[in-house]
Amino acid sequence: MTLQPGMRLAHYQSIEKLGEGGMGVVWKARDTTLGREVAVKLLPDASARDPERLARLEDEARAIAALNHPGIVNAVRARGSRRPARSRHGARAGTHPGPTPSRPEASGPTN
Q1: Residue 78 within any structural domain of the chain
Q2: Per the domain annotation, does 45 fall within a domain?
Q3: What is the pTM of this model?
Q4: CB 65: neighbour CB atoms within 10 A?
Q5: Structural contact between residues 109 and 70, judged by C-beta atoms closer than 8 angstroms
Q6: By C-alpha distance, which of 45, 81, 40 is closest to 61?
Q7: Where are the beta strands (DSSP E) in 1-111?
Q8: CATH code where residue 76 lies
Q9: pLDDT at position 100 over 70
Q10: What is the number of other CB atoms lying within 10 angstroms of the CB of residue 107?
C-alpha cells in the first residue's frame, strides 16, 4: 500500500509526506481521535516482515520516548498489526512547528 495525502491508516489521516530514509517514510498526519498533528513513520512492506528492522524501529521509539525537550518530538506509539493482511508497522510521534529539511522556510520555534 502506498500512502497518499488524505488517506487513513487506523485513526490517522495523512496530510503530507515529510521525508523518506533507510528506515521508512515519515508522514505528517492528523490523529482523528485526539485531534492533534502527529508524525507517522511507516516501514516499507518488505521491512515490515524483518524482525531486525522491527526491533530497530522499537528501539528508535524507546529512545525518542526517553527524551524530553521542546525541540524533539514525543513518541506516542510504536506498533504493528499482527494480522498478515494488514501488516503495517510504524511509530507515531507528536509534531512541533518549525522548519524541516524539506521546508526550511517554515516559521516557528526551532530551539
Answers
A1: yes
A2: yes
A3: 0.66
A4: 15
A5: yes
A6: 40
A7: 8-9, 12-20, 25-31, 36-42, 75-80, 89-94
A8: 3.30.200.20
A9: no
A10: 8
